[in-house]
Amino acid sequence: MADREVDQQLVERVQRGDKHAFDLLVSKYQRKLGRLISRFVRDSAEAEDVTQDAFIKAYRALPGFRGESAFYTWLYRIGINTAKNHLLANKRRVPTSTLFDADEAESFEDGGLLHEVNTPENELMSKQVVDVVQTSLQQLPEDLRSALTLREIEGLSYEEIASVMNCPIGTVRSRIFRAREAVAENLRPLLETSKGNRW
Amino acid sequence: MKKEISALMDGELFEDEAENLFDQIKRDPATHKDWEIYHLIGDVLRQPEHIHCDLSEKVRERMQGEPTVLAPRGRAVKQRARAVALSAAASLAAVGVVAWMSLQVSPEAASQMAMQQPALRPVSAQIQPKSNDYLMAHQEFSPSIDMNGGASYIRTVSYSTDEK
Amino acid sequence: MRMYVALRTVLLGGLLLAAANTYAEERQISLDWLKTVAFAAHQTDYSGVFVYQYDNRVETSRIIHVVESDSEYEKLESLDGPKREIIRHHGQVWCYINHKMVQVDSQQVRGRFPSLLPEQLSALSSNYLIKEAGMERVAGYNTQVILFQPKDNLRYAHKIWAHTDSGLLLKAAVLNDKKQVIEQYAFTQLQIGGNIDRSWVGAKGFMGHDAGLPVSPETAMGGTAINSGWVVDTLPAGFKKTREIQRPMRGKHAPVTQIVFSDGLGAISIFIEPADGDEDDADGLSSRGAVNLYHKVLDKHLITAVGEVPPRTVMQALDSVRYNGK
Q1: Helical H runs in B28-131?
Q2: Which chains form contacts with chain C, at 3 or more CB pairs under 8 Å?
């Protein structure tokens, strides 16, 4: 629930004229939305364009978002429509599988096909990122690793983690931060070099 | 400020603290990068099939050409309380029946889903080979032996041959 | 006026719930059928190939299970990756390790089949919502899909595809509260009954030397039931102690205490042994598929909790372990 609240707060900032708040939402959901759209649009460069389109459409439609559903559920529907319209405009077949709510669709992904979609450079980058994150995770002290796992993978709140790990909430906050920062330290050099290679 | 970003993204700050922090991120690109990288880490942990992408800059460029959207004021502001921890015995029974409907799938979708590989839960730290014997000792008394038969055993020896 | 509205809401709400429950009753899974399903893997002769998915892995294996003179024989071998083989017979387990078969376990098995009491099965419905979820074909057989949805977030959901004739599970999945599949296994080829290869079963039905399998003296002793004096205070509702033994474990010079708790679908084992002082990775949480493992050193003892339950449950269970004996 806390996650929804952060999104809602950012949405309201955008609705008050703060474009930068939308940046933060893009940073948060770009991979998730990109993966969804890749299921419709096979070519990776094309999928990236369509994902950008979807974000812009969402930005334009934001005044009409009333917070009745979660932001990502709303964004997800815009993503599907943008992808479908793109296929139709290019006279391509739209897959017939009816996708349910955002969470259900996330539960069933044809991971194998996504690799065909990726460019070789991006595939290498993706693999390197995963390796660095996994290795960093394994190297973390146990209490930091457990806290991060319970938060990011099990989705527990700080209060729940505090109860599970038998420690004060402040300790949970500190452990999660230290875990993130330790992984981030290893990731930053990798991401910097990739940016440097762009032309 | 990194520490605050970490708490902010988990929804663990009060509204006014969050507002202040959002203002600060606006002014400081380095802090924005922390937001990005912390979210990337979470995504990678949750998604073994990670596809790297970096759209934010491109979207930002396109947004510069967009008129600033504004929503009409006077909208009712929802009260946002701090997240309340679920009690350990939280009963799903009350919502059980309604929630069940969403699990019923239409026949076409069912056959489509059967063909797709289900996305597996993200990988957290792996049980090391040296703990295999605990797994095996547990397996013998686990109900999965009754239902699945011996099939579950295969996971207890997944790394056995790596042992010295 | 307000009270009338409130009362009406309560009555209507109550009626709706009752109606919904009636609908639920009509589609309840019968206890007899559940019992058949629970025993099918033990009673049926079958041979097949299945795919096991967990974490990032997809593994294909062959399994042969036959029943001879009231005991079960089972062989499991991997069809990809490095060679892995497991043979099980009447509580004894052999494993292919370091290029040879090694006996890894030997538990006393009482009776013909595990005693699954009717009350254990009916207890399932206290902690899980049990619903039929359609019919599907798996490996060419008709199956009924049954879903066990936990009533709390301390356990996983289980979804099973049971052969409508024999009750044998042809596919099974474990899901978390976000409906993500944590592990899944499914037969891709299957033969039920008929002519099944029994050449690997030892002469006169004995495994061990007659089947070319070693019998190791320490392991052969198995476990002894004891009252260890250790207790676990925090467990989810419905978890009952099913075992408390002292047993040898490979590579350990002292016997280990193992206490097992189960709610009928998932189980948690607590292992207690003297701490060597050179434990690395104490206080660690790790997982493989639906199994989570957590261990820490407490008072000169190494305590390990293992179970097919979410991390928070193994962690809370382990943190509540204490010694209550003399």
Answers
A1: 29-46, 56-64, 93-101, 107-115
A2: A, B
